[in-house]
Write a structure and sequence with these properties.
Layout lengths: L12 H13 L2 H8 L3 H15 L4 E3 L4 E3 L1 H28 L4 E7 L4 H15 L3 E7 L2 H9 L5 E6 L6 E16 L22 E2 L4 H12 L11 E2 L2 H9 L5 E4 H8 L5 E4 L7 E9 L5 H15 L5 E2 L3
Parallel strand pairs: 3-4, 3-5, 7-8
Antiparallel strand pairs: 1-2, 5-11, 6-9, 6-10, 6-11, 6-12
Helix pairs in contact: 1-2, 1-3, 1-4, 2-3, 5-10
Family: Belongs to the LysR transcriptional regulatory family.
GO molecular function, one term: DNA binding
Protein name: Probable hydrogen peroxide-inducible genes activator
């Protein structure tokens, strides 16, 4: 108890950092080196934390350091507190100076290889002080990361229809039919959607939103998922290789076309007649995010950068 306070003292951040470092390294010298402080100062900070909490956190021996059962549980809590403080400081940095600090961007696999060059070019040229960190994951994982605070901004296909998530549309892009070069639809520019009822359509694995979009298109023309083959692939590159091997046809977003097909002479493409099946790509953020103004500016700058691609940029 602090003199005259009438209530328990609170641990300091310095004490929590010292304990977290010891819990990570299980060695006082290594933990002190990691924090850039002396070993006696580190040991004193951990002892002070034990006194404040009235709990023994570590068992000290001549050779090593062990966490007590209470120490193991409280180490997790200490790391959570320190991570929350770091997030607080990042938000404060962003509020003081937009487009600085860390931006954790999540991207779906069917977008990342084709749009990241434009995103990275924009950040390099316009926002050199922004520490962009990219995470490629499927949609469900990205949304979990956004709502839990692990990610700040997502680049993915919409609509999502998720409460608490705001979408910033970037562009629409058409789907193209990719097929073997000797296919009867090769090179056509007026393929009716209804042709998808009879084709051997290859899809991505479960969990990819592009698979769901392809299935939606099939349902629109009266084809059920039960009428599709069992062959699937984990990525677009593998899917295209299967097409080149004569196993069927597939749908590719137009932004992926050049990367995935230009080096394979066994492939041909065809375009759909109106109404052309398409998808919409957007940025997504937590509704009411502290950096929502900054993210809106980022979306507008990215729209201008994406005009160089075969897409229809949307209005903000």
């Amino acid at each position: 108890m602090s003199p005259g306070s009438g209530r328990p003292r609170q641990p300091s951040l310095a004490q929590l950092r010292a304990f977290a470092a010891v819990a990570e390294h299980l060695h006082f010298r290594d933990a002190a080196t990691a924090l850039g402080m002396s070993q006696p100062a580190l040991s004193g900070a951990v002892s002070a934390l034990e006194e404040v909490l009235d709990v023994q956190l570590v068992e000290r021996t001549t050779r090593k350091v062990l966490l007590s059962p209470a120490g193991e549980r409280l180490a997790v809590r200490a790391r959570t507190v320190l991570d929350a403080v770091a997030a607080l400081m990042e938000e404060a940095d962003a509020a003081r100076a937009p487009f600085t600090g860390v931006l954790r961007l999540g991207v779906i696999p069917t977008v990342a290889p084709y749009l990241l060059p434009a995103v990275l070019r924009l950040v390099h040229d316009a926002y050199p002080d922004l520490d962009l960190q990219v995470h490629e994951e499927q949609t469900s994982s990205l949304l979990d990361g956004l709502t839990q605070g692990r990610l700040d901004l997502l680049l993915l296909a919409v609509p999502l229809g998720v409460p608490g998530v705001t979408e910033l549309p970037l562009f629409d892009e058409d789907f193209v039919l990719v097929m073997p070069r000797d296919h009867w639809l090769a090179g056509r520019g007026d393929i009716p959607r209804e042709a998808l009822r009879e084709l051997d359509l290859l899809l991505l694995d479960e969990g990819h939103c592009l698979r769901d979009q392809a299935l939606d298109i099939c349902r629109e023309v009266g084809r059920t998922s039960g009428a599709l083959g069992t062959t699937s692939a984990a990525g677009l590159s593998t899917l295209v290789q299967l097409v080149g091997g004569g196993m069927g046809v597939t749908l590719l977003p137009r932004t992926a076309l050049r990367v995935e097909t230009e080096r394979n002479a066994q492939l041909a493409t065809g375009s759909f007649a109106d109404p052309v099946p398409s998808r919409r790509i957007a940025l997504a953020m937590r509704t009411g995010a502290a950096r929502q103004g900054e993210f809106g500016q980022f979306a507008e700058a990215l729209r201008k950068e994406l005009r160089k691609l075969p897409v229809r940029v949307t209005a903000p």
